[in-house]
């Protein structure tokens, strides 16, 4: 199966602090990988390296079989939902303007077409924000803002979706809808990387889990991680990981 992301011997530091140490992992086409680990473990940093926003200190990072720093057109195939960006402070944009950014990235900032609007409508309906499309983003609740950011990333129709704690502040109903959406994307052979602290939910949804705390502790299916006691090693507590993955 095609490797969409391949990371070898990755190291990164901020100032003198080593944040990632010898991380090796991969994400296959159509695979749903969740990254878990305690606060400050380096998860967001790893995502930013995969997206190409941060250049690592050392190591190989390939996305779509190319060095991530050399991606050109392929960069548009990556949809990224960052953790708590404070867009609203700077931009008085409406919901639909932010979702449109996802389409503009793909169509090279050309005038939006009928097709672009169709996609925007679909993702806004999926994230239940169509009714607030004319509202100013900065005036929405935290959960509503998060849905807009997810819709923006989905509007790109990405081949690789990278999500940094996307469901924080989102109500349970919308969270369920969101996971259903992720399942649909997986069926379309899209790859997904999700950082989340919600171990219970994600262990039901994902193909593999990567446990990170500076180093990669384990990279395997949720059941395998439970057997190896990686969560205990990671969090220093005895974790009961509930895996009810349906066939
Ligand atoms: N731009 C930066 N400059 C300096 N240090 C940073 C920077 N970004 C992150 N760090 C530090 O690097 C470490 C890892 O941060 P990171 O955000 O990657 O962790 P995380 O696993 O995503 O944490 P959380 O679960 O709390 O979101 C933290 O100690 C953080 O303070």
State Rg. 18 Å
| SS summary, helix count | 8
**What is the CATH third-level topology name?**
Rossmann fold
Q: Kindly state the percentage of residues in helix.
A: 25-40%
Written as H for each helix and E for each strand, in order along the chain, the element string is EEEHEEEHHHEHEHEEHH
Keywords: ATP-binding, Nucleotide-binding, Transport
Protein name: Metal ABC transporter ATP-binding protein
Organism: Dictyoglomus thermophilum
Family: Belongs to the ABC transporter superfamily.
Short summary of the structure?
34% of the residues lie in helices and 26% in strands. It has 247 residues and is α/β, with parallel strands linked by helices. The longest helix has 16 residues, at 172-187.
What does this structure look like?
With 247 residues, this protein is α/β, with parallel strands linked by helices. The protein has one domain (3-235): 3-Layer(aba) Sandwich (Rossmann fold). The chain is 34% helix and 26% strand. The protein has eight helices and ten strands. The strands form two sheets. It has a six-stranded mixed beta sheet with strand order 6-7-8-3-9-10, with helices on both faces. A four-stranded antiparallel beta sheet has the order 2-1-4-5, covered by helices on one side. It starts with a strand and ends in a 12-residue tail after the last helix. Bound molecules: adenosine-5'-triphosphate. Adenosine-5'-triphosphate (ATP) binds next to helix 1.
């Amino acid at each position: 199966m095609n490797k969409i992301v391949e990371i070898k011997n990755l190291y990164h530091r901020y100032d003198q602090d080593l944040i990632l140490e010898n991380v090796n992992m991969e994400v296959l086409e159509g695979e749903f990988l969740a990254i878990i680990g305690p606060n400050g473990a380096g998860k967001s940093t790893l995502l930013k390296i995969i997206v190409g926003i941060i250049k690592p200190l050392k190591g190989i990072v390939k996305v779509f079989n190319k060095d991530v720093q050399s991606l050109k057109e392929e960069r548009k195939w990556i949809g990224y939902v960052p953790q708590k960006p404070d867009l609203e402070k700077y931009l008085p944009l409406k919901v639909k303007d932010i979702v449109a950014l996802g389409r503009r990235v793909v169509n090279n900032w050309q005038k939006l077409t009928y097709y672009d609007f169709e996609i925007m409508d679909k993702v806004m309906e999926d994230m239940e924000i169509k009714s607030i499309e004319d509202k100013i983003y900065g005036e929405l609740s935290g959960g509503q803002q998060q849905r807009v950011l997810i819709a923006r990333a989905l509007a790109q129709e990405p081949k690789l979706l990278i999500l940094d704690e996307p469901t924080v502040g989102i109500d349970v109903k919308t969270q369920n809808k969101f996971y259903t959406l992720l399942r649909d994307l997986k069926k379309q052979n899209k790859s997904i990387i999700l950082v989340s602290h919600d171990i219970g939910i994600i262990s039901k949804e994902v193909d593999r889990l990567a446990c990170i705390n500076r180093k990669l502790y384990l990279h395997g299916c949720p059941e395998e991680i439970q057997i190896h006691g990686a969560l205990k090693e990671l969090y220093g507590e005895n974790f009961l990981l509930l895996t009810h993955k349906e066939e």
